[in-house]
Amino acid sequence: MRRGAPARRPVSPPAKAEDALREQAAIAAWVRILAVHKRALAAIRVDLEHEMTMPRFDLLANLSREDGQTLAALSRSMLVTAGNLTGLVDRAARDGLVERRADPNDRRAWRVHMTPKGQRAFRDAERRHATRIAKLFSALAPAELTTLTRLLAKLRDPMRALAASAAPAARGSASARARPARAATMKRERRRKASPDDEETNR
């Protein structure tokens, strides 16, 4: 190299360059999906909630696919906490849309069923909801919608596998964080139980 000449930057290997491009494309796709989801959900919520809240519609939609689910199953499929779901089911039951029935196989569990009134309400809301969804996707041709659906389905299984593999690590981390607290609690409990004997000994 001649004296005073600028140093050349090392050329990235093709594999690293390809990985960087893939990461950039993935982030761009992720941001776009989030933005579209947010805007679509806002538009649907404005229209739908004149008749029915989105959480209630989601509850009835899940029961229309499989009636008589347990609260635990509904919580998993709707991605809501058990506390939020209990309130949602209570309000829907109060309005006569669903009812709780004892699980014939487990006396401690309850199953949620749609009532005839709930079925009629959901059919009406679903019909109007389908019309709104079609308007939201009106910019895409039927073939493009088919391609989009196929690509999103292609992403679904790897994402589920990734979430499943991350769950044990998350539980292990939470358990590790909880161990010191449990140990301290047990230590305090031992001291509390030992204190009467100590007092008796010192008398």
From TrEMBL:
PROSITE patterns recorded: HTH_MARR_2 (PS50995)
One biological process term in Gene Ontology: response to stress
SMART domains found in the cross-reference section: HTH_MARR
Protein name per its UniProtKB record: MarR family transcriptional regulator
Listed InterPro entries: HTH_MarR-typ, MarR/SlyA-like, WH-like_DNA-bd_sf, WH_DNA-bd_sf
Pfam families xrefs: MarR
Molecular function as annotated in GO: DNA-binding transcription factor activity
TM stretches of this protein: none
Region (Disordered): 164-203
HTH marR-type domain residues: 17-157
Domain of life, per lineage: Bacteria
UniProt biased composition (Low complexity): 164-184
